[in-house]
Amino acid sequence: MRTADWTDSVSVLDRLTAVFEAFTEDDEGLGISELARRANLPKSTVSRISAELVAQRLLDREGDKLYLGVRLFELGQTVVEPRRLRRAALPVMTDLRNMTGYTVNLAVLDVTDVVCIATVLGVPATPPVLRVGGRLPAHATALGKAILAFSPPEAVHALASDGVLGRRTPQTVGDLDALVQELGEARRLGTAVEREQCVVGRACVASPIMGRAGVPLAAISVAGSVDDVEPERVAAAVHAAAMTLTRRVGAHRNP
Questions:
Q1: Sign of torsion, CA 227 230 235 241?
Q2: What is the pLDDT of residue 1?
Q3: How much is the CA Rg of the chain, to the nearest whole Å?
Q4: Spatial distance between the Cα atoms of 73 and 226, rounded to a whole number of angstroms
Q5: Which DSSP category does 217 fall into?
Q6: 79-252 has which fold?
Q7: C-alpha distances in angstroms, 97 versus 33, 128, 130?
Q8: Mean pLDDT across the chain, nearest whole number?
Q9: How far apart are CA 160 and CA 87, in angstroms?
Q10: Rounded Cα gap, residues 236 and 239, in angstroms
């Protein structure tokens, strides 16, 4: 967490990053005062930075509210690895959605979170828990567990230096040792399961997409109502989809 005097020795890039990171996916625009409070920056600094970012279309302004700009989305689409994964995965994701009826997500690991890079909505469509570009704690998701199960131990231990994990629901695994046990089971089965650990009423089954060096590149999942998703029924289909993408993407990626 940034302390009150954190700006004393930080760069302009640090300040820009603080402004961008102040936004969350649930925000309906932020005023200068709230943006300054979240970024822990002086209001005058945020006002100046915001004006420059609006001029560059990196932020959008409507009245006194600021939003992340469309140019950020445009730049994000040029990132090579997620774009290549998404392009290869969408036909497989659509087939998996058609086979199961559930929403299908594709995500990559970013330190302690998973970031969604593609979604195919289920039938009938329901509001997705994870939108494209959104992130969730890796330890609370089947997507994250599928990746972490095949990641180096240091990636797992980086989730919590004190062994305690943050809880999103009462079912979220809150202990690193318990998570390690879950990851061992996911590694054995080739799929990870999550029931109401991320969102109450939702369940998810995921499997990793592997690279040539045996390092997970991403994970694919199906998600739906906890009353509808039956892991034993969909696990094989999810794992088969992940294996298909491993052959299409992972096997051709440089170690």
A1: negative
A2: 40
A3: 20
A4: 32
A5: E
A6: Beta-Lactamase (3.30.450)
A7: 43, 13, 16
A8: 86
A9: 33
A10: 5
